[in-house]
Design goal:
The structure holds two protein chains of two kinds. By secondary structure, chain A is of the alpha+beta class. Chain A is built from twelve helices and ten strands. In chain A, 40% of the residues are buried. In chain B, helix 9 packs antiparallel against helix 11. Classes of the chains: A alpha+beta, B alpha+beta.
Chain lengths: 414, 375
């Protein structure tokens, strides 16, 4: 048992480290280190532009989309090399946010289901950051039950005509292409009438509107489709096979979103160390210690769970199912930590401005944002179902709509 | 990175599991649970023959001379089987105290006897309520003459010897505490068995009246030795707790698959599925924290105090959580004496107190993290 690299891994790490030292945009290092909890802010620059420049440099240096085959713009790296790269890329990895959906989900789907022409045309430009992709799956009436989606695609000659609405699309406003799942046959049960496409986001009839979220910010979009035309050669997989295709994408989603998770523990530890209560520092209070300790061991438990997965990769094995717990644990923990930090702040905890008492409102911000951590990329409930079914082998849910034609499924509860 | 047990260590785990499945069935555990024997003597003998009792004891003292990682994998299996033997008292506490502080003569006398199964050892630290702290040690030792009462002492009624924490000063500092080694079978001490939460591991009260004992380690070093012993035992117990948590989770899962209610397997209800998923989450966190503790223990790393506290907390929480919800998944049947659920519930909650309470270890963890951050 040790935490050391193998000789081969150490050599790879050294090469990566040298390249990063010579090429990373150091002028942003400080700002990037300070942006925590998934929120990236660059005071004087556009994050997407800075990100594109870094992605392009990485592509030219053969460091983009590491695990992809080299003919499609990757490096053909092993999973462990990808992990080492992420560790070395460090804070600059935050700049890759606009490309994560493309690299982690859309790209692999095109790779698995696209024609050779499509792969050669789209994947290298995705890898270089020249073209950004988004994912168009969720709908207002189809979140966890994404197979219940309503967006229609109808065949007209060699084209498909799309009408409907998608929601929670990260980066739709700066994306060039989108991966779209739509209903092509409403007369068969819901999983069987779906087809996957990709489309040019600048197509006529595509309208992107930002969503004002419950936390007051705008990070996601709604995308409306009005008679949008998609050529049939932009279909991925057979007509009616969209559900199987989407599983390629979603499998990758849970892996990639789980990669860099904030828990709130370091922030909370620092806050409790500095906060003075009536009887002394908060961290000396037994009740505070008890809570802090319980969160600390969850956080360390997640860290060492990922180390176990990395060790499996290092040996060339498939990691076990342990990593599926990451988002479930960290999402709830963020929310609990935010609530408790504010409780310690007492009356001032209600303030969300740049007040000294509330450390510039960082926990208030965390409180308002944390519900999304428990929903995006699989709700807590869906994740528990997945653990119960795939890890523990418990029966799947009884699906009353499984064999019912889609257009006969009730659409309202009352 | 190789943050995992080696193939040899995993093989040892399989070997231990196979042995315990055969020799330590729930039926065998129940002989002790029902009070028909103080511990499973046959099993104890078998563990000695397998070399498990002395796995971390050096060869020169009659052990296998393997190491703590090997002991961790065996500990996990002991917990999984709910073994009714004085393994933790003897191997994690008494043997480790001897290894850290024993003189050559003391090691030669007791360690081979532990490895061969001839001697059961324990640590006599607690005196009624309270957690490990120098101020809670009231038993006195004036010129090596012990006076006072230790209670509860795990496996005290069956132990051949005990490591006893005693007060040798009154300065209010840790250096007031010294350790002594007492041969409990030599007479002169009064030992009384106590009823306790987990009858598969006994507890006792030991009274010392003007008892002349030999020192273990230097005078005034007692607390520093104890702290090391408790940290090591915290990691080793964490593996027992992880084994117990996993078994409780498995029992719940199996029952949820077998039991039909409302015309369905109860494991098809989300209320049950989600409860079991949460048990899996806490068991996984505990396992990963314990692996880190194992690494720190086996390399004697500077991180051991923090790693041990984290493993202890995480494993205590997981075992309690899994044992409790295992009963809940079983419903009414889980509350019968006949079903095995309560054996794990008892063990989980007894283990949560054995080395100091959860609250004590939470306090320790934060103190240790703070020291590290300040350094």
């Amino acid at each position: 048992m040790n935490f050391d690299d193998t000789a081969q891994e150490a050599a790879f790490r050294e090469t990566a480290r040298k390249w990063i030292a010579a090429n990373a945009p150091k002028e942003f290092e400080q700002e990037l280190s300070k942006s925590s909890l998934g929120r990236i802010r660059l005071a004087k620059h556009d994050m997407v532009e800075v990100g594109k420049a870094w992605q392009k440099k990485k592509f030219e240096g053969n460091w983009a989309c590491l695990h992809w085959p080299s003919e499609y713009g990757g490096r053909g790296a092993t999973p462990i090399e990808r992990v080492i790269w992420q560790q070395e890329e460090g804070v600059y990895g935050k700049l890759t946010q606009p490309f994560q959906i493309g690299e982690g989900m859309c790209g692999p789907t095109v790779m698995a289901w696209g024609s050779e022409d499509a792969k050669r045309r789209y994947l290298p430009k995705l890898a270089s950051g020249e073209e950004i992709w988004c994912q168009l799956f969720s709908e207002p009436s189809a979140g966890s039950d994404v197979a219940g989606l309503r967006t229609r695609a109808e065949k007209k000659g060699d084209n498909w005509v799309v009408n409907g609405q998608k929601i929670w699309t990260s980066g739709a406003h700066y994306s060039d292409y989108g991966l779209l799942i739509a209903r092509t046959d409403p007369n068969v049960p819901k999983h069987k009438g779906l087809t996957m496409f990709f489309l040019d986001m600048k197509s006529p009839g595509v309208e992107v509107r930002p969503i004002k979220q419950a936390n007051g910010m705008q990070e996601f979009n709604e995308v409306y489709f009005t008679d949008v035309v998609i050529p049939d050669n932009q279909r991925l997989g057979a007509v009616g096979e969209g559900w199987s295709v989407s599983l390629t994408t979603l499998m990758n989603e849970r892996m990639s979103i789980g990669a860099r998770l904030a828990t709130g523990v370091p922030e909370m530890f620092e806050f409790c160390s500095n906060l003075m209560l009536e009887d002394g520092p908060a961290i000396d209070d037994p009740a505070v210690r008890s809570k802090l300790a319980s969160w600390a061991v969850k956080s360390s438990g997640l860290k060492y769970t990922s180390y176990r997965a990395i060790s499996a990769l290092s040996k060339g094995e498939r990691p076990g199912p342990e990593n599926s717990i990451g988002k479930l644990v960290s999402g709830m923990m963020l929310q609990d930590i935010a609530t408790y930090a504010m409780d310690l702040q007492g009356a001032a905890g209600v303030l969300t401005g740049s007040d000294e008492e509330t450390v510039q409102g960082q926990f208030q911000q965390m409180l308002l944002s944390s519900p999304s951590m428990r929903i995006a990329g699989g709700t807590d409930e869906i994740l528990r179902n997945i653990i119960a079914e795939r890890v523990l082998g418990l029966p799947g849910d009884i699906r009353v709509d499984k064999d019912v034609p889609y257009n006969k499924i009730p659409t309202k509860g009352r | 990175m190789n943050f995992d047990f080696s193939d040899d260590q995993k093989q040892l785990r399989d070997q231990a599991r196979k042995f315990l499945t055969e020799k330590c069935s729930p039926k065998a555990v129940r002989v002790v649970l029902d009070g028909k024997a103080p511990y499973d003597k046959q099993l104890w003998k078998g563990l000695a023959e397998m070399g498990f009792l002395g796995v971390a004891i050096p060869e020169e003292f009659g052990g296998a001379g393997a190491g703590h990682l090997e002991l961790c994998v065996i500990a996990e299996e002991m917990g999984r089987a709910n073994a009714p033997v004085p393994f933790s008292s003897t191997v994690y506490l008494a043997a480790e105290a001897l290894l850290i502080a024993g003189s050559d003569a003391q090691k030669k006398k007791w360690l081979p006897a532990i490895a061969s199964g001839e001697a059961i050892g324990t640590l006599a630290l607690f005196e009624g309520k309270g957690n490990p702290a120098p101020k809670n040690v009231k038993l006195t030792a004036a010129n090596g003459v012990l006076n006072g009462v230790k209670k509860p002492v795990a496996d005290g009624a069956i132990a051949d010897f005990a490591v006893v924490a005693a007060r040798t000063g009154s300065s209010g500092r840790e250096s007031d505490i010294s350790l002594f080694l007492v041969d409990l079978k030599a007479g002169g001490v009064e030992i009384k068995g106590l009823t306790n939460l987990d009858p598969t591991r006994g507890q006792a009260e030991i009274t010392f009246k003007d008892y002349k004992a030999e020192s273990l380690g230097a005078a005034g070093e007692g607390w520093s030795i104890l702290t090391q012993v408790l940290d090591r035992a915290a990691v080793l117990c964490a593996f027992e707790q992880v084994g117990g948590a996993d078994r409780a989770l498995e029992m719940g899962r199996d029952y949820a698959l077998d039991r039909i209610a409302f015309g369905r397997q109860i494991g098809s209800f989300q209320a049950i599925k989600h409860m079991l998923a949460d048990m899996y989450v806490s068991a996984t966190l505990a396992r990963s924290n314990s692996y880190y503790g194992a690494w720190a223990l086996s390399t004697n790393a500077a991180e051991l105090p923090e790693a041990a506290a984290a493993a202890r907390i995480s494993a205590t929480q997981a075992f309690q959580h899994c044992a409790k919800n295992n009963i809940q998944v079983h419903g009414g049947m889980g509350f019968t004496w006949e079903f095995d659920c309560h054996m794990y519930y008892r063990r989980a909650n007894a283990m949560a107190l054995g080395l100091g309470s959860l609250n004590y270890w939470e306090d320790q963890l934060i103190e240790r993290m703070r020291k590290k951050n300040a350094a």
